[in-house]
Amino acid sequence: MNAKLTIARPGMLTTVQDYPGRVGYWQIGVPPSGPMDDLSFRLGNTALGNPEGAPGIECAMAGPAMTFDEDTTVCVTGAPVSVTVDGIAHGQWRPVFVPAGAVLDVGTLSGPGLRIYVLVQGGIETDDYLGSASTFTLGRFGGHEGRTLRAGDVLKLGQATGAAGGVPAEHVPAIHTCWELAVTEGPHGAPEFFTRSDIDTLYATEYEVHFNSDRTGVRLIGPKPDWARTTGGEAGLHPSNIHDNAYSIGALDFTGDTPILLGPDGPSLGGFVCPITVVSADRWKLGQLAPGNKIRFVPVRAERAASRRDLGVSRRASNSVVHSSGGDGDDGVIARRDGDTAVTYRRSGDDNVLVEYGDMNLDLALRARAHALHQRLEAEKPAGLLDLTPGIRSLQVRVDPDVLPVGKLMGMLAEAEDTLPAANELVVPSRTVRMPLSWDDPATREAIQRYMHGVRADAPWCPWNIEFIRRMNGLESVNDVFDTVFGAEYMVLGLGDVYLGAPVATPLDPRHRLVTTKYNPARTWTPENAVGIGGAYLCIYGMEGPGGYQFVGRTTQVWNHRHPAKSGPFEEGTPWLLRFFDRISWYPVEPEELMDLRADTAAGRGGGVEIEDGSFSLAEHEEFLASNSRSIEEFRAMQSVAFGAERQRWSDAGEFALPG
């Protein structure tokens, strides 16, 4: 029988995590999760003779108290705390023997840092979810019942397989209140997105960690960029807006004018620019950044970054200073390739390459090109390939650089590009998915009110997002917005735009493409399955969380929390409802009817979703565009006038001068 531990006091934000977490699901909006400070976690496991990724406990600011029904050995790492066994003090970073029935008490922080790790010899046994024991609380899965631990929880322990030792002093990471983070340039640098002065300011500034930070991202306080562009065009009114692409963990994401370092529970896909990315070996520091801490970014050459695999002195974690002779000096652009479809290869840390096609326009031919590359790499499956995540006109390729160095990857990408089929040859499976939509749903109204009370009341899109959409697109009435949304067929171009299978989709008919901008700053709360428009794209929010799209209503679930069982419209073993190139259309329901449909879906019934198999031909679509080109251009011209007028109103009101 397995030994067990019982939680007597849970501490704060205490969860079960494993390393490297949930790998391989970035493309459908499932983050890896795992320990935010992977180094402290892995060192604690090795000190106990465990595999370095064995499931353990993470908490923040205050640790747990627990008992064991058998003699056990533990190791407490991370930020400095008191550690006692039945009141007798013990040290961190070394094995601690806990007799059966004794109370292991891990106290509150007694120094700098934020997160504490409790590792147990043999590890913690939990059921895997999509291949990992890591807890993702926002998604309500993984770990112990998909949530933080509570008093009275009982966890099973695994069998010890190795001898306990300790962590050498020179391997213990240095935890501070003032930090230097090693970063690489890109993916979105100067002069395309930021000015040279913006980048100089970024490296010269001592940023402060905002109190509103968590595992999804570390919000920073710092200067507002001047920006190299006036707008994001089709992607949105603010110059931070871009056509959605995949993010890297550790990217500095400018959501409007607010910089946020994306964490292991952060979004996989989004429409904001990221000028720099923390290298993988330094991302452990994100887990120890506490409110009020100071940060400086130090550019390094990607090929000289330390390896995340290393746990010893070569990780450079015990040194508080990042030694660097400078970055790569290429603004994050590794290479460019000319041709019928231009290709830009952008660096996103030392472990990601963002392959970007064509100009910054919404063009399904570019999405087709990214799809062809995606299929090619997925079929080859080279060793070291970890994730492939498509965006609107891009594909992010994540690798283990110790197995598949970026230089070798670039050779593979060039070879693949030479053999890809023409974009107009694309014919893909494309289901029609008809879904209920509660227009201007009360839950979305509540989210707007919360935003006005807690974030900013004077935003141009408040108090009614639908009226803002009408104004930005030059429509005569909000009924025209209604007619446009319900008359459109939205093609799914990406998944995981706001986590958990959330689609980023655009109308196939350009005359249905309502263009908006995104909230700046973003909302702190969005109801699950709210439907919104940002730039020229529609999204269904897969779960509660932050967000920035302009609301039009709410629909039923796009993620199956009953996984892996077949449930309603969800397939066996596939918790996400939608697929790339699905075509979504809406039918109207009242709010009360939607609540009934949502209850049906939660109970494993259909939930009002109708799905029919089909296919999509890009060549046929281009024929449609050609035959309707005149009216499409007339609509775009009208829309452009309204978009320009709205931007002028923002400029006159000082909107672009607002602090982040």
UniProtKB/TrEMBL annotation:
Carboxyltransferase domain location: 27-318, 343-578
Keywords, alphabetical: ATP-binding, Hydrolase, Ligase, Nucleotide-binding
SUPFAM superfamilies per record: Cyclophilin-like, PH0987 N-terminal domain-like
Keyword Hydrolase in record: yes
GO molecular function, one term: ATP binding
InterPro entries: CT_A_B, CT_C_D, Cyclophilin-like_dom_sf, PxpC
Region described as Disordered: spans on this chain: 316-335
Origin superkingdom: Bacteria
Record EC number: 6.3.4.6
Xref: Pfam families: CT_A_B, CT_C_D
Classification via NCBIfam families: urea_amlyse_rel (TIGR00724)
Protein name (database record): Putative urea carboxylase
Organism encoding this protein: Rhodococcus erythropolis (strain PR4 / NBRC 100887)
Top-level taxonomy: Bacteria, Bacillati, Actinomycetota, Actinomycetes, Mycobacteriales
